[in-house]
Amino acid sequence: MSQSLTFLGIESSCDDTAAALVQRGPDGVAVILSSVVQGQTALHADFGGVVPEIAARAHAERVDICVREALAASGKTLADLDGIAVTAGPGLIGGVLSGVMCAKGLSAATGLPLVGVNHLAGHALTPRLTDGIAFPYLMLLVSGGHCQFLRVDGPEDYTRLGGSIDDAPGEAFDKVAKILGLPQPGGPAVQAEAEAGDAKRIPLPRPLLDRPGYDLSFSGLKTAVLRARDGLMAGLGGLRRQDRADLCAAFQRAVADVLAEKTRRALRDHPVSVLAVAGGVAANREIRARLEVVCAEQGVRFLAPPLPLCTDNAAMIAWAGIERFQQSGADDLTLSARPRWPLDQTSPALLGSGKKGAKA
Ligand code: KG4
Ligand code: ZN
Question: Which domains, ranges and CATH numbers included, belong to the chain?
């Protein structure tokens, strides 16, 4: 534990190509030496979602550029590294393969240890990278591709308490934006529109609140927005600005309500001292405020890493690689890319397919 470790991390599981260098000091404190993220929003903009083939090609073209940039920005060379961590799943398989092949090539050429990292473990261990918090803690992961409550007991010890049985919340925000003619990514657009809206005017369901447990569902909510929009349009022949704002506010309130209630239950049943959030949806002001209230009620610390570390990045992969390496050692060159890779191997797989392919 007293050794200092410097890892290169590589991430390419969805629509961000990323590379980063992270150093863990002998005291256990992490320093992000560099973090490079190249997004692909513009490449997919015309298609209303991530196109796996386009994503895979872009990752293949950019991953080595990102690695070079991350090394240059850190002032280090490959000779200064102790290992290479790469997202080996879950995600869109073409993209994951690009990263894994790049990491294997670097490992074969340098002899550096290769560590395959679960993308979700990257998110789940981020609170240790940013704030050095101790196990156990609860993690709410809410992004465009994922939605789960995790109890984190160790670098490789996760219990999935519940998750979305259909769409991820970010996916629902994106689809609602599309339904209402707002730009992508939908989350920030819906949030901005909701500011001028009345969240109480249009009633929307609160899916799965009537059922025990922590599972969530967002697909029906999105359909309810579509029906409400059609109802308003049938009456008026079009959608007024105020109607759109009211629909956004009602949708955002419904998502916040279910996330707050399920979080309250999870904290009540699994007493821990920290709730951490990750994923792009954790940037939503109303959702964040509601989660903060729930945590304050239960005397739990609310931890939201800075946004660039909440969304997809490679620093979290480098860090998760260091933690995994210290616990279990390295992988070898037979490491394979896995489209589906649940963190909690004992819980049944969630149904359906998300922005990142099969749900974990
Ligand atoms: O974690 P992330 O950057 O990427 C992956 O999904 O991998 O999350 C992106 C998602 C998008 O669906 C986006 O619409 C949503 O996060 N998002 C938001 C907000 N900012 C981003 N959703 C709600 N409110 C926001 N302010
Ligand atoms: Zn992610």
Answer: 5-134+308-328 (3.30.420.40), 137-307 (3.30.420.40)
At residue 357, does pLDDT exceed 60?
A: no
124 CA to centre of ligand 2 in angstroms? 10
What pLDDT is stored for residue 175 in this prediction? 95
Q: Cβ distance 238 to 181 under 8 Å? A: no
Average pLDDT over residues 332-338: 95
Beta-bridge partners for 11 = 18
Distance CA 240, CA 244 (A): 6
pLDDT band at 259 (very low <50, low <70, confident <90, very high): very high
Using pLDDT thresholds of 50, 70 and 90, give the confidence band for residue 73.
very high
* d(C-alpha 129, C-alpha 22), whole Å: 9
Measuring from atom 10 of ligand 1, which residue has the nearest CA? 144
Residue 327: what residue type? Q
Task: List the alpha helices (DSSP H) in 167-209.
Answer: 169-179, 186-194
Determine the distance from the C-alpha atom of residue 358 to the mean position of all C-alpha atoms in its chain, rounded to a whole number: 14
If you measure from the C-alpha of residue 131 to the centroid of ligand 2, how many angstroms do you get, rounded to a whole number? Answer: 19
Q: Is 219 helix (H, G, I), strand (E, B) or coil?
A: helix
Contact 318, 21 (CB under 8 A): yes
- Structure tokens given for 106: 């670097």
3-state secondary structure at position 196: coil
Which residues contact residue 19 at a Cβ distance below 8 angstroms, ignoring those fewer than 6 apart? Answer: 8, 9, 10, 11, 36, 63, 66, 67, 69, 70, 314
Residue 256: predicted pLDDT:
98
Average pLDDT over residues 261-282: 95
Substitution candidate for ligand 1 out of 173, 218, 316 with most atoms within 8 A of CB = 173
Q: What percent of the chain shows pLDDT beyond 70?
A: 96
pLDDT at position 332 is 96
User: Which position has the token pair 């109607």?
Assistant: 243
